Amino acid sequence: MKKLRIAQVAPLYESVPPKLYGGTERIVSFLTEALISMGHDVTLYASGDSLTDARLIPVIPAALRLDPNKVDQIAPHITMVQMVQNDRREYDIIHYHIDYLHFPVSHCSKKPHLTTLHGRLNIPELQALYNIYREVPVVSISNSQRIPLQQAHWTDTVYHGLPENLFKPVYTPGHYLAFLGRISPEKGLDDAIEIAKRVGIPLKIAAKIEGADQGYFQNVIEPLLDHPLIEFIGEVNESEKQSFIGNAIALLFPIKWPEPFGLVMIESLACATPVVAYASGSVPEILTSGVDSFIVNDLAGAVACIDNIKTIDRHSCRASFDRRFTAKQMAENYLKVYQEVIASKKESLIIKETDHEYN
């Protein structure tokens, strides 16, 4: 394959990779480094505290979450969009990870571009926006993520991937259940706590509390933590995840919303730890119930399957990861999309020029 000049445009809320929690920025990092290892020329637009082998264009000195003085968090992103446009001639393709912020500029540009949508799309206000920007090429991170926006210009679904050596499989687990993620109503931590209590197995919680969810934590979750089986750890970094997930009997993922992907699920598979998850959003696409997980419909179903968790072969969990969710596979899939978008853009420009000649 021809060497491509690729711009990766990351959110500025966290560094790339993030110091702690930050799913999108981690994926941008893994994709960037995988593309470089495959011989491509990658430029990363991100915060200045990012660490990468790519050419780094520091839009701001440090991630927005670490700078309490940054009042307007959209302005730096708009600045970044213009910086990318100013440099557009340097690239074969521009890959955005900042949602729709660049649409008004990039949809008028002749430069091939692609946007991975990392978040939830079942938001009413998005309907009018994607009715206008139907031609902007976008990638989904699961097929279920697409459902609310049928009118979007979906080019492909590319599942997330992790470096093969990021986590080592642990085939002999410890004696606790694990919950890893963000504390918010849709993540289902209250159900995870209830599951642990009903089965009588300790639950360790490694979770981030964002400002908007402080009230939920204080009013709903904090009162549930006062129990001998429940241990709240707080946020964990990349290196701490290995032992936290790997030593668990199972990872609990009792989500209550249409999860677009759920990175923690493939982190768990990489550690050879089975997952007990509710059948929402991307879950049935990522996991194979009875092979690397148990997918259930409710709390009662989760409780019932914990007794059978040892029937899941932890080697099968790691095999599921190796087969479908490595960073190399993710990068290869994106390269196919890049080539398609570049070819489509060239064809579109030829058609427009031909129409102009006849008009």
UniProtKB/TrEMBL annotation:
Keywords on record: Transferase
CDD domains: GT4_AviGT4-like
Domain Glycosyltransferase subfamily 4-like N-terminal: 21-122
TM regions (residue ranges): none
InterPro entries documented for this protein: Glyco_trans_1, Glyco_trans_4-like_N, Glycosyltransferase_grp1
Domain of life: Bacteria
A Pfam family that the UniProt record links to this protein: Glyco_transf_4
Ranges of residues in domain Glycosyl transferase family: 175-296
Transferase keyword on record: yes
Signal peptide span: none
GO molecular function, one term: glycosyltransferase activity
Keyword Transferase set for record: yes
Protein known as: Glycosyltransferase family 4 protein
UniProt organism field: Pseudochryseolinea flava
Source species taxonomy: Bacteria, Pseudomonadati, Bacteroidota, Cytophagia, Cytophagales
